[in-house]
Amino acid sequence: MNSKKFIISIDQGTTSTRAILYSQKLIPIYKYQVKIKQYYPNIDWVEQNPNEIWKSVLLVVKFIIKKNKISTNDILSIGITNQRETTILWDKKTGYPVYNAIVWQDKRTSGYCEKLKTKKNIKLIKNITGLTIDSYFSATKIKWILKNIKKTKLLLNQNRLAFGTIDSWILWKLTNGNSHFTDVTNASRTMLFDIRKMEWSSKLLKVFKIPKKILPEIKENVYEFGITNKFGSKIKINGIAGDQQSSLIGQACLKKGMSKSTYGTGCFFLMNIGNKIIYSKNNLLTSIAYKINGKTTYCLEGSIFDAGTAIEWLKDELKIVSSNKEIKIISKKTKKNNKIYFVPAFNGLGAPYWNRNARGAIYGINRNTNKFDIINATVESIGFQTKDLLNLIEKDSKNKIKQIRVDGGIANNKDFLQFLSNILNIHILQSKYSESTALGAAYLAGIGSGIIKINKIDSHWKKENTFKSKINITERNRIYSGWLNAIDKTLYKL
Fold it and tell me: What global pTM score does this model have?
């Protein structure tokens, strides 16, 4: 074993930044987390302050080092995982961002995307990137900043302008501007990356009028990305992956057909589809799962925009529940014959509907409806949306999914996981380590440091609980048909 003792994982998410300290055996020792503020300068705009993101990274890493009284000489490597698609452009000379980070949830370019959706462009972008045309991805965000922020023209002429998703921004700052890299998973979510050729697409750069020189260099998930001296002595950065692919790795879904679902701000359902591309016929996405040791693995993905945000809405706006712990006891107070359906389309509907104009709606309310019914409907909506994705991933992959490994905040709610198993009619495996996203980045750093091999990750994965369906097919179909009816009504209103 290496004489150095620790791995640090930086997990920069949509609503928070956390750092987790791992032992050399990749067991979590300590976690520290701080919230990140979101800004809404206009309707459907979502932004964050890049400097606040950077300061939060410094804060959480410094805190766990100090709290655990460890020397930076004992830190073997750092792994980074991040909210994907969120877009930052900055001045390479000063290190200052030219504009706020435009968050993946932001919909300001939806109108442009609709105009872009000709048959030719839809086919072109799908074949090159595996993605559908949507404001979700980075390309139109970059285009908006280039068009609307005047200083970008001057910086571009002076060769001082840089683009990056959050991973690239953090890496740039950690290495004092010496590393302008991204990894294949984050690149595959920009709508500019050729998933066959594994390079930036010159055709799409031309479509979006984005100069290649501002883009980061693309690397595998395990690479010597750089060295940071921000915390004392020098520490290597050996692993980077977008959060959902990092979770796939953290859940040890490294064999073809294995699936995971992460319940964070949104919900992201990924299936490992092996080394051959499958283009979805059902409005799902094809991305890079990971590339390690020269071998590329692909995944099919379904994205739900509002999962954790729906729970936060109950707490922060409606104020009808105070904590996640309180939600765990709600089902006992819900009238089972008073079926309420909630479509939480705060940010539009993601896969498979891809309708950014959809808005939230609650159906089935009567005089007897109470707050417990609304809370329960909110939790169940996450399960229904997962079933939407499961059905289509099975169609595209031609695989029957027998089990899903789950993680994220609401995956700690056993009642939710039982409902999920009931509605999906498959086994739900709850991971012992709920922070699978951070764990995936730790594994990547560990591979890069030589303390673990990718084929040994599976032996590290631990199961906490297994949930099996407890309802019959008639009941399952009855419950789910009500959800599909609610979706039809929501989309019909448009």
Answer: 0.89
